[in-house]
Amino acid sequence: MVPLSWYLVLSAILFSLGVFGFLLKRNIITIFMSIELMLNAVNLSFVAFANFWHSHPAKLASGVDVVPLSGHVFVFFVMVVAAAEAAVGLAIIIAVFRTRETLNVDQVNLLKL
Amino acid sequence: MTKNLNLWVIPLLPLIGAAINGLFGRRFKNALVSAVALLFTGVSFGWAAWAVWTAWPGSGIALPHIETLPFPWIVAGNFSAPFGFYLDQLSMVMVLVVTGVGFLIHVYSVGYMGHEGGYYRFFSYLNLFMFFMLTLVLANNYLLMFVGWEGVGLASYLLIGFYFLKDSAANAGKKAFIVNRIGDFGFLIGMFLIVQHFGTLNYDSVFNALKDAAQFPVDPGWGWLTISAICLLIGATGKSAQVPLYVWLPDAMEGPTPVSALIHAATMVTAGVYMIARSHAIFNLAPHALELVFVIGCLTAFFAATMGVAQTDIKRVLAYSTVSQLGYMVLACGVAAYAAGIFHLMTHAFFKALLFLGAGSVIHAIGGEQDMRRMGGLRKKIPVTFWVMTVATFTIAGFPPLAAFFSKDEILSGVYASPHAGHLLWAIGVITAGLTSFYMFRLWFMTFFGEYKPEADLGDAHLAPAGHAVAAAHGSSGHAASQADDDHGHGHSGVHESPWIMLAPLVILAALSIVGGWVGIPRILGGHNAIEHFLAPVMEPSPGAIQAQELVKNVPNATEIAHEYAEAHPNAAEVKTSTEWVLTGISVAAAALGLFLAWLLYYKRPELPDRITAKARGLYLLVLHKYYVDEGYGALFVKPLLALSTVVLWRGMDQGLIDGLVNGAGSVSKGVGNELRRMQSGNIRSYAAWVVVGGAAVVAIMIWLGVR
To answer: Is the pLDDT of residue B551 over 90?
Structure first.
């Protein structure tokens, strides 16, 4: 069985890739994809932990096993939010492209001082 | 038998009038404004007359009659001050004078102020004044009296500065208020001392306590009784325009003439005299304070009279005359002839109100001119005014059988009988009476006799070098033909008699000036000095209280107290009848001499005054400049205070410290913000970097906390 730490390392690697892509890329779609990457890295750690706790159930004083499902639930939440974000984000991207005719974020800087 | 007289109604009615006119008067027609003002003042007078009638000594109501409203006013620990009203013989006289003369002046104002802007404002203030004055007079404790005291000061301020667009009027208002504040401070300290030693400010408690000679013996030195009496006296010098705080009253003539008549002659300025008379129980136990009282009264009477001699503004002559007459009243209080003081207060209210209103009628007649050098020959043109002014002039000069003859004589004989250097004071009083007669007849001759010369050149040729200084000192008084219609110009052409609504009060006041003194005809002239007997129960140091007299017998310094009692009641010390005749004769002779000199100088040979002033130029200038007192106060108090305020308080504290702190805080935030705004680059990836840095910082802190 694959140990928990491997999942976590993979998750960290994916998250860091997301962060660096987020920071370094200029194309707004790539940045968007980096954000999705970070979200999914987090999802990976959630399911990994969920799986881990599934095989190590906590025992209550009464002897009943408690199998937490919050990891799975959160993953669904994140997916929903990510989907909503994708819809909104892509709409914004289209709007930005229509007005600015570019996808380079360094040129989308009207709000600077 | 106690009967509820609802005394609280008397002051409250004018307050309602003031509120109605003040709040809604702007939309009212003038007739409605005057109807409201007259109605409430008139009903107040009626109520006061009814209350006095009902409570008249012998009617079965015990005097002093005290009424306290059922709810308390101030309660703090053991101390309490009620809304209480106090009716005794003294406040009876006062309340009738205030409401009666006040009502007449309200009537007069309807005619006088008819052409002025701010008509409703004027009547609102006038009613407000009545409210505060009646509170002052009717209060049953010093604190409530102080409320009225401050309130009349406020009303006075508002009315002096009634023509607030005129700088001199606004400044005069401020001057009156500030100078009065100095006196009020003394009054406050006096009240604090009374609270400290009696634990109450109610008249009856304080005065009853003072009757206990064992507990409160006569203060031979400078103990707290003397100090508190002196503090009260300081208050009185402010309100009653005595040396050294009299300077505000002449400037107060900037107000409309009915105001000068009501507030600055007949009622408010007598508040100080009333207060001293009311506090006579304290003053009687403090001989040194009494000495100070008569010294101040005497100085004021004399110097104000000399200042009146050189004035050319008709209202200012009357102002100095008022100061001088108030000096007489204070002098009477100083020799413990309180009844004489109050008597003179009453007659003075009649004849001085008449003089001011008459002067107002003259000013009205000739279109706002106030300088007597531009008057003259008005006798034929405004006959009614002339006749009432004649009555008033003869009254104030002290000719029998007019009112002031009796009251002034009463004071002078009281002074003569006083054990403190009585004869010297009496001599000064008689000289002052002569001076009074002189300057009043000077006014009379200059105004009503000779040629009418409205275009007279006031170039002050004989004054040339000092001319502008005079202008500065006088404010708007004499000079400046251009200012002639400042006060009361309404563009009438030609001399015209005033309407009857103005003349009727004059005639009534003239009648009162004639007969008003007859309530105090002394015994030698066949009268029985009714007013003194009337006031005696109030002024008696031991009002018929046998126990108090027994106490006197039992205390070691009984003779001293008895002596004080004798002092307090100089007429008991019976000046001999023949002496009294001589005294009376001398004071009438002084008045006649004043009349003769004025006749000689201002009627028979009008060129003489110029020659005399040229001869005695130094003295003349000194008097004309009112002994440079205003200038002295300016150099001594105003300029240093102004410099201190400008340099230290304004430039140093306000601009330096406070503005520095505020502006400093502002510029620090501005600088910090200026640096921080560089973070707002507009570059999305730099924002992202900040987010990452922040997130990393959070993670780092959590790791650090977890490790620990």
So the answer is: no
